[in-house]
Amino acid sequence: MAPSCSPINSLHVAVIGAGAAGLVAARELRRESHSVVVFERNTEVGGLWVYTPQSEPDPLSLDPNRTVVHSSVYDSLRTNLPRECMGYSDFPFVPRPEHDESRDPRRYPTHREVLAYLRDFAREFKLVEMVRFGTEVVLVEQDGRKWKIRSRNSDGVSRDEIFDSVVVCNGHYTEPRVAQIPGIDLWPGKQLHSHNYRVPDPFKDQVVVVIGNFASGSDISKDLTGVAKEVHIAARSKPSETYEKLPGADNLWLHPMIETACKDGSIVFKNGKVVQADTIVHCTGYIYHFPFLNTNGYITVDDNCVGPLYKHVFPPALAPGLSFIGLPWMTLLFTLFELQSKWVAAVLSGRVTLPSEDKMMEDTNALYAKRDANGFPKRYTHRLGVVGQAEYLNWIADQIGEPPVEQWRNKELEDGYVRLATQSDTFRDKWDDDHLIAEAYEDFLRQKLISAIPSQIFG
Ligand code: FAD
């Protein structure tokens, strides 16, 4: 995998999606001299961060023929990581322009600020000119040594085109995973997935059970406490005796998972507590979904493991023509998108070479064997975690001759996750790692990515 000395190939590449992953993929591919078409079914860039008050008609999103609403962002959402560590390496996510009152300078800003940042990024690097908006990719398949893409525009007109390579950046927070609850078929209440949650108002005076206690579950339960009568969180990871009144509200309780749902409307938790509930909100995550992809069964999604994929990016038998950006989670996502994109762009141009198909398969099987030996379920295959993510990102950086990820960035992620888990009601406004903010801004200044430290940062 050493940098190669052969001449640079300039390829015709399709990118699917103009979210945070697709935008940086387009930039890196163009930087590497490829010609790029980005297919985006929405009418603007930003992907998940394009908030819409609209949600899907099927509140659990189980109907495969439903009209899909891409974004899972709720109105009150603020980032769950500090902004300094979220941005791309050469375009930091700093408050800009400094005195624009429509912008949110906070360290954990609202979803609107992330969208504004992505729009700034697209403008700064002239990415919009590569995007075909209102164009959905409905089929991707091999055509000899090339790839056929069938797309459909907003007038319903289909078109087939041939590309040398396809980079999949379609996001993976749109297809909900729903909890299995004994007795649920007879339970008379309402259910929805967090994908379709926007504002708390419809839950006024209700007793709501929220399943899941990570980022969205924790946020949505707090959001609900302002209007609901009672909010009960069911957390799979909690021991069966758990029963706690949570701080920050007088109508919020934490339980272990649900034991059963009953036809009289009650919900029984594993701690034996019973509540008469109106609604269950499933904050239980998402599944990877590539409805457009036809690889004759080579790539499968099995218990949320997408494979086989070398280093979560290249399917060994189809590399480098097909690649995936952004599958791993519990990591510095924008950094990951950027490094994976640089790697794909450099492999396609021939500047960096991949190992043989057999070697890639060996490596992929070794990852699966390690996962199994550690007792992790398949659905954790793409979960990197604090230590694994630094190793993974630095490995890619090394392949393409980039410096390792900054220590302050990794530490912000690590400390950020600890705060998220231990002070879920205050982590966005109280922290004790100002020294990391200082390091980040000094780094931006040193690299001339900003001209001064914005006045809001330390005071
Ligand atoms: P997306 O943003 O989902 O973009 C995918 C794009 O592909 C979309 O524009 C979509 O329209 C398009 N598309 C999909 N299918 C097709 C098709 N067939 N044809 C054409 N176009 C298609 N990350 C953080 O770093 N910090 C946070 O604070 C944070 N908070 C989050 C909160 C929530 C509630 C969720 C769900 C996720 C959060 N994330 C956060 C993770 C977030 O997903 C990533 O930050 C990132 O924005 C994902 O970018 P993406 O480009 O991979 O996917």
UniProtKB/TrEMBL annotation:
<protein>
    <recommendedName>
        <fullName>Flavin-containing monooxygenase</fullName>
        <ecNumber>1.-.-.-</ecNumber>
    </recommendedName>
</protein>
<dbReference type="GO" id="GO:0050660">
    <property type="term" value="F:flavin adenine dinucleotide binding"/>
</dbReference>
<keyword id="KW-0274">FAD</keyword>
<dbReference type="Pfam" id="PF00743">
    <property type="entry name" value="FMO-like"/>
</dbReference>
<dbReference type="InterPro" id="IPR050346">
    <property type="entry name" value="FMO-like"/>
</dbReference>
<dbReference type="InterPro" id="IPR020946">
    <property type="entry name" value="Flavin_mOase-like"/>
</dbReference>
<comment type="similarity">
    <text>Belongs to the FMO family.</text>
</comment>
<keyword id="KW-0560">Oxidoreductase</keyword>
<keyword id="KW-0503">Monooxygenase</keyword>
<dbReference type="InterPro" id="IPR036188">
    <property type="entry name" value="FAD/NAD-bd_sf"/>
</dbReference>
<keyword id="KW-0285">Flavoprotein</keyword>
<dbReference type="GO" id="GO:0004499">
    <property type="term" value="F:N,N-dimethylaniline monooxygenase activity"/>
</dbReference>
<dbReference type="InterPro" id="IPR000960">
    <property type="entry name" value="Flavin_mOase"/>
</dbReference>
<keyword id="KW-0521">NADP</keyword>
<dbReference type="GO" id="GO:0050661">
    <property type="term" value="F:NADP binding"/>
</dbReference>
